[in-house]
Amino acid sequence: MSGNSSGGDADNFNWDTEDELEIDNYTISSHSGVSLPHGEAVLGAAEASLGADSPNSKIIDHFVGMGFSKEMVAKVIEENGGENSNLILETLLQYSASSLASSSNSKLIDHFVGMGFSEEMVVKAVQENGEGNTDTILETLLTYSALEKSVPMQQIADSGYCSSDYEGSFLDDFSDTDSSSETEEFMNPDSDEERKLLHLTKMGFSEVEASIAMERCGPDSSIAELTDFICAAQMAKAADALFPLEDKKPFSNDFNHKKRRNLDYDKWKRKKQMKLEKRLNEIDDALHLPNPMIGFGVPTESDQIIHRKLPEAAIGPPYFYYENVALAPKGVWSTISRFLYDVEPEFVDSKYFCAAARKRGYIHNLPIDNRFPLLPFPPRTIHEAFPLTRKWWPSWDTRTKLNCLQTCTASARLTDRIRKALEHNHDEPPLSVQKFVLDQCRKWNLVWVGRNKVAPLEPDEVEMLLGFPRNHTRGISRTDRYKSLGNSFQVDTVAYHLSVLKDMFPEGINLLSLFSGIGGAEVALHRLGIPLKNVVSVEISEVNRNLVRSWWEQTNQRGTLIDIPDVQELNGDRLEQLMSRFGGFDLVVGGSPCNNLTGSNRHHRDGLEGKDSALFFDYCRILDLVKCITARNQ
DNA sequence: AACAGGATGATAGATTCT
DNA sequence: AGAATCTATCATCCTGTT
Length: 634
What we know:
The protein is an alpha/beta fold. It has a seven-stranded mixed β-sheet with strand order 2-3-1-9-6-7-8, sandwiched between helices. A two-stranded antiparallel sheet has the order 4-5. Among the domains are: 13-103, no CATH class; 286-377 and 467-633, Vaccinia Virus protein VP39 (Rossmann fold); 393-456, no CATH class. Mean pLDDT is 73; it is low at 1-53, 97-106, 148-189 and 235-286. It is built from 25 helices and nine strands. The protein is globular, with a radius of gyration of 28 Å. Helix 5 (108-114) crosses helix 6, helix 11 (207-217) crosses helix 12 and helix 18 packs parallel to helix 19 (478-486). It binds a DNA duplex through strand 1, helix 16, helix 17 and helix 19.
């Protein structure tokens, strides 16, 4: 961060429009001595509204619980009313920022501590960002505190709750941390949901936040998940307020102002969000998608990283391997990484392994030296993969790789439209037509199968590109084949990462495969020549389970395959039972559903909290249990 | 089973601002 | 010149309706 030289940078917070002059000198905490022009009057009013019976007292408590001073909260509620908590939070953060701008360096740490951040956290943030750039420090602190507030799974594990009822223990552990709360009077915690709700409100979250989180995370979500969700949401909201410069918000009680504000609010918010994310990215550049996307190395490129340092908590046994789409909504990968022991994701595009792109992130604790690829190498270009298309391939279609293989394919109507668009021309079509056709070809992965004729890939061809044996998915409906394949691993890519296991487990491995799909991990290990001793495969789709079972028999596996339809079935008891029977798991593989993360989902791109993608937390839960049980049995 | 249906984020290049 | 901003381009393990 290039530094503004000192804390006196009032320019950073250029708010002086008429409406905002009144707050320009306002400071949030008793640590700084700047006083308000009419502070007394405001505080007087605020005092009055602090009574326990006041309708706003709950919301005041809420924000105080977040670390803001009572006076400041009261003032903001005075000015904005108590309904729009979003607006209140933004304003509070603006106040914080503005007071920062006028506070001196020596008071910097005190100031942040006064906001409710811990001293060591502040010192760290100041060290990292320099003293000058206060808004950067605030951002960093917010990031830290969101990270800290969320309770990573490993902490639960570390604290010794291994059995299937650890969530209950966790609840008990927290339920008496705070005795002063008025929540009891309206809640009677006899159901699990209400218990969680009560618990969350006691932790300082609002009832609304808690309910939303529970709705979004599902009824079985743990407190850890819920707090994580709320903190993420709070951080996003807080983030909105951190742009003091150009997009100034009118700040007054003027009704028209507010109305206008609301009209532009969404647009404004989006713009802010974008900018904040840009700045947050600068903070944790660790999660930038790499270019070229080769992870720690691919067999076809010379660039390679041989060493990495895993966080202590991540080191096995068991080994684990988690996969999901690389281009997930912002923050998703940092959350995933946080829940998986802070292991840095390895982003790899399968175009370095086969003829189709497939940008994915992998988080694993496997060694990364001495990897080797599956042989023979699969075709690496479209022409190699589909030699027959070469004859019809026009010179102006310069593709050499296909795009990501998806679950749907182009309609016949579209290929027909393309044919018609091209038929009118004897020579090269005009540029506009070329562009249209190329756009569609890229979008739907069309290949040339005749004069002016494009077609989507056949399921067989997709199987081949993804590294599965021919006819692996044969026998189910065409639509299902596309769907199952589109949701699968690219076998060569995964095998390259898993290849390091071969020397370590010459006798074979016990595999726990979550969200197995059509068995990409199993196929990869088999093709690597790593014997599969016992495989427990969890897969919701019966069609897919049958495919894996059928492959298992066709390939004359000697081991045991156990399939479980529902990931919820795999609780602590069941796992203990399975693990004592097999002697533990060597590897836990899983790629949790991505349909709430991917850009191609028009309707429910809800991020990790989405209905399906939230199953990621089950992966964490189960991995944690396995880790715990393994450690205990050693 | 076929079909239609945008939104998000990354990136590169051009343009303007400092 | 270099930073900041704008613009165009491209890719994306898909869902709801018919």
